[in-house]
Amino acid sequence: MNKFMDRVQEKALDMVMTYVLKSPQDNFIKLVEWADRFDVAGNFKSAIETVRPMAEDPEHTWHQYVINLCEEIDHDVLKTTVQNFFINASLAGMAKQHESREKYRCNIPWAILMDPTSACNLKCTGCWAAEYGNKLNMSYEEMDSIITQANELGTYMFLYSGGEPLVRKADIIRLCEAHPDCQFTAFTNGTLIDEAFAAEMKRVKNFIPAISVEGFEKETDFRRGEGTFDKVTRAMTILREYQLPFGISCCYTSQNTEMIGSEAYFDQMIAWGAKFCWFFTYMPVGKDAVPELMVTPEQRQFMYQQIRKFRETKPIFTLDFWNDGEYSNGCLAGGRVYMHINANGDYEPCAFTHYSDSNIADKTLLEALMSPLFKAYQAGQPWNDNHLRPCPLLDNPSELVHVVQISGAHSTDLQNPEDVVELSAKCENAAAGWAPIADELWRASRASQKSDRL
Predict the structure, then answer these.
(1) CB 225 within 8 A of CB 124
(2) CA-CA distance, 236 to 240, in Å (whole number)?
(3) pTM to 2 decimals?
(4) Under 8 Å between Cβ of 90 and 36
(5) Which DSSP symbol is given to 281?
(6) Hey, what long-range contacts does 62-66 have (CB within 8 A, 24 or more apart)?
(7) What is the DSSP-derived secondary structure letter of residue 279?
(8) Is 90 exceeded by the pLDDT of residue 268?
(9) Is the Cβ–Cβ distance between 178 and 144 less than 8 Å?
(10) What span, in angstroms and rounded, lies between the C-alpha atoms of 142 and 361?
(11) Model pLDDT for residues 380-417, shown as the tens digit of each residue
(12) What whole-number distance in Å separates Cα of residue 217 and Cα of residue 207?
């Protein structure tokens, strides 16, 4: 009966999307009204009411964003994305995740980040992934099993990192085929995207790349190697030609923050055709890390302000992994919103904290989420009452030390194991410098929200 209802709802969504796409400018508001009817439990009432004025106003930045999606992205791909991301992973998926949390009394992730391989065709300055070496791989069967187990808990969103995940192009496409109701994306350097892979993406419809770009040519090639920028922009051209959605992943450092946060760069991302951007601040993870690349507190504040400013005026969806803690109510990791599985099969709370007490060889996904390390994360979150200081490493370094030590977790860096005390020490100055700025921003944000409610 449930599968029958799923098919009925999927068919209904297809009919609605087909109708909307005939005239998106006129029918955008009808899509919002449909979502309102689908959300019987009212779980997304606030979000729907936020979107409604955007749908009603043709001059609104986000109205224009949606219209651009409808005009520039292949309609079958767009339909699949709406079904898998907004319905399966979010509306229906989050309800199922809530049931699983209540049943098992542990965090259940909205998304799982997996590393198909530790191999990479580049060697970027300060890359934590390089610490794993280039010989680790999760098998297709292991990744397929994780996805199946996750679906049983309500998780339908999967991301890949590495290494370079597109070293495993064939298996990634095969997983997309095997799980057509899931949404997949990858943090990729983009250099392996060609016409043949774009054609495969268009065929399976449920894979969206997030391409790593560190600014313009000078900044990108500085960190990723000479000629990388040209290969990346070629990949974006191919994706546009195939009418495929893609985003950008930006790591902002002490060397490129002013460029990454500039209006010129936001405009360039839009011109490239990117529909979203994930922003990450540089983390000094790994023995070969370059602490000098960590941003100053002033640079982090600059990114906080710039991203919020441009959200009001630029038609590109943006997320700042740390500075958006106020919207996610703190830390996302430890399975609260997402978790990481490295290429060796180690379950990790976060892509930036390489410690584990469980491996896919001896524990199921659920058993890992109930392990001492993940339960310690659950107990400690949100780590700080100020959600602009959400991270147990970057913002509250003693917290990571505590959870690793009480859980008995070990370093998962097989080449150069790093003691958690040494790692956390690298972040102490950054945490102390950011704290007073974050506290001031937090007070201002709370006051603004209170004023809006009044």
Answers:
(1) yes
(2) 6
(3) 0.91
(4) no
(5) E
(6) 62/315, 63/28, 64/315, 65/275, 65/315, 65/316, 65/317, 66/24, 66/28
(7) E
(8) yes
(9) yes
(10) 9
(11) 999 999 999 999 999 999 999 999 999 999 999 877 78
(12) 26
